[in-house]
Amino acid sequence: MYSTGVYVQEMLVLYGRAMLGFTARKNENANVVLKQQILYITLPTLILYSFVKKLVISSFLVI
Fold first, then answer.
1. What angle do CA 56, 58, 60 make, to 5 degrees?
2. Residue 44 to residues 6, 26, 41, 47, 62: CA-CA distances in angstroms?
3. DSSP 29
4. Total structural domains in the chain?
5. For 1-58, what is each residue's pLDDT tens digit?
6. Domain boundaries, position 13
7. Mind giving me the DSSP string for 39-61?
């Protein structure tokens, strides 16, 4: 049951990215829009996610 929820969550993320790309390509300055999305949203989120993941893993490794 847990794997189904994870699957649905990942599929929603993928469909969201596909819709973002589709709507951005309809715009004349699609490269600028996608570049801004990567620089201002995706990369900071990825940095925060990796930091939080390391904190959670290190809290479990304390003996």
1. 75
2. 23, 26, 6, 5, 28
3. T
4. 1
5. 567 777 888 888 889 888 877 877 777 777 787 788 778 888 888 888 888 777 666 6
6. 2-61
7. IIIIHHHHHHHHHHHHHHHHHHH
